[in-house]
Amino acid sequence: MAEVLVDYSLGVKEGELVVVAGPVGASAFALALQERILAAGGHSAVRLQPDELAESLLRSGSADQLEWINPVRRGLLEQADCYVSLVAPSNTRALTGIDPEASAARRRAHRSINELLEAREHRGQLRSVVSAVPTHALAQEASMSLRDYSELVVQAGFLDADDPVAAWRDFGARAASLVERLTGTSNVRIQADRTDLSVGVAGRTWVAADGTQNFPDGEVYTAPVEETIEGAIFFPHATIIEGRRVEGVELTFAAGTVVRGRAERGQSDLDALLETDDGARRAGELAFGLNERVQRFTGESLFDEKIAGTIHLALGSAYPECGGSNRSALHWDLVCDLRMGGIVHVDGTEVQRDGRFVDGWFDPSGKT
After folding, report:
1. Does residue 298 belong to any structural domain of this protein?
2. How far apart are CA 220 and CA 317, in angstroms?
């Protein structure tokens, strides 16, 4: 896995600075990453922190302290050639008892860091990847053993292939064919249980995610035309965001803005997320999940949004490379499962039914 991330996802070159950040639960993997970075001739700056540090700051920090950004961290990210963000919590619910406003204040403060990363990536100055590392907490959230969860990571990342890099390049080529079909289209309509949503995409750029941005990966995404989203969409499965479990989310859009948000569980948390800032009620991303090696929901969006037969909408900040203009401290991926009765139309033509593309539009298995 370290070999794929360093050599393929990031393409680390001699003399480049690679910043690795995450919780201490990722220490064993961080060591493997450093070994591979050194083998590639790069320099590694590893920053691993106990999960409890975030909880301490959010519980005890003043308003000024919550808004403070560590200049050492900013300096590293201003100079890094590559950045690896590791998802490896020891407790997925560690921040459940935190005041939502404290979390929102910290999220708004980190917007400047996110914008720095996005700007440097957009200019070609930085390559980054977000990667999941198996932990007991992630496995427990997914109702799996650590061994089974680790196997999920292996399968979803094509790490059991004879040549994982070749497998990802093959997937990328097939995903690019879907991007080609979607390029130049104007509207995507999604219909499913409690869902009938129209999303404008005219003039926006579609991108194939081929293991160079997330790991595991497997989607094509774009930025909706902000004011065009109309209708309702239902996300039945649970998602964990900042230690809070939100489940059964139903959003109603009018002129691109969420005018009503309901949750079967976590209503107060949903309300707080929608009030993060002015951009939090708009969608910054629309994407098709394409990874057939991910079949079950885990509660971790890095996996769930890649499930073949799903579509996801992200509230908040848009990716600049897609042409989106929405800016927010929030980027929250919500996944709609279309495998049991969902239909997707693109410019009035049915392209997907029950999670499967029709009329040879696209086959994520590579059979067509």
Report:
1. yes
2. 17
**Residues 337, 252 share a domain:** yes
Q: What is the DSSP string of 184-247?
A: T--EEEEEETTEEEEEE-TTPPPEEE-SSSEES--EEEE---GGG-EEEEEE-S-EEETTEEEE
- Domain, as residue range, for 88: 2-133
- For residues 233 and 187, membership in a common domain is answered with yes
Taking the C-alpha atoms of residue 324 and residue 25, their distance in angstroms, rounded to an integer, is: 35
DSSP state of 307: B
* Mean pLDDT, residues 330-337: 96
Residue 141 lies in a domain: no
Amino acid making up residue 245: R
Write out pLDDT tens, residues 172-212: 999 999 999 999 999 999 999 999 999 999 999 999 999 99
pLDDT in tens, 120-156: 999 999 999 999 999 999 999 999 999 999 999 999 9
Could you tell me the CATH number of the domain that includes residue 43?
3.40.1830.10
Residues 89, 191 within the same domain: no
Q: What is the pTM of this model?
A: 0.93
Q: How many domains does the chain have?
A: 2
For residue 331, the tally of other CB atoms under 10 A from its CB is 20
Q: Indicate whether 178 belongs to any domain.
A: yes
Residue whose entry in the numeric block shows the structure tokens 């690795």: 20
